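FAQ: What does the model actually see?

It sees only this:
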Amino acid sequence: PKTSNMAFISFPFSLFLLIVLSLSSQLANSANNTQNFHYFCDQDNDRGNYTDNSIYHTNLKTLLSTLTSNTQINHGFYNFSNGENTNKVYAIGLCRGDVKNQTECLSCLKGSSNNLTQLCPNRKEAIGWYEDEKCMLRYSNRSIFRLMEIGPAYYASNPNIATDLSVFNETVRNLLDDLTKRASSGDSRLKYAADSARGPNYQTIYGLVQCTPDLSEADCNSCLVQSVARIPIDCCKDKIGGRVVRPSCNMRFETSFRFYDPTATPPPPPSTTNNTSSPPPEPGTCYYAH
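And it is asked to produce this:
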């Protein structure tokens, strides 16, 4: 009987252990998942390469480790620099405006960091996004803070064609134009807007736009306006969904599919004693290797 009881206990324990190991494996894979990860490795090699274990390499590793473990979240936006002179590295991390969980945000950035250093080995400049745009990570040996850049970019679209095209396209354009104005007017903590509109045949069209919040209102507006203008040219003409994703901004729309968290709210206005808006915060600085 004692042997029988031990065997009975052993089976569920083994099953439990198998489940735990499986979940651990899935979590590890999700943090290093290159599937549905879009990236660019400075294809023209304008920024050059670094050698393994060089000062630049050490500074990059320290910088990415600091960024992906920083617990002082600033509404999903991180900017750091590390090093000096030719060995200085700059990095920006941005999580989508509706990602409210800090752990989820940092996990996404950690996966992006692992992917970029694996997929772009020894490149001094790289940028990557997961397909759902939950986060963006970029680094370079040049200053990228407060710099509006529209390339490199990637485009994606839903393969299905909309009905009542003139009304549908006008609804999408009006929705994204409105969201562009709302996101651009955000402060240096968050430039994000998401909403929906009623399209033809009682369909609901959902839209989302976001800029890195270090941009000025004018630069954010310019980046998004250019992105919306590319919809009928580069990716999404007459399609029921599409996205344009750039280093400084991104936009997306979908039909009958709410892909964002509608409960996300903008941060409260910063306390101020005057009516002038404060400039974006300076990049954080890490310790650097000599």
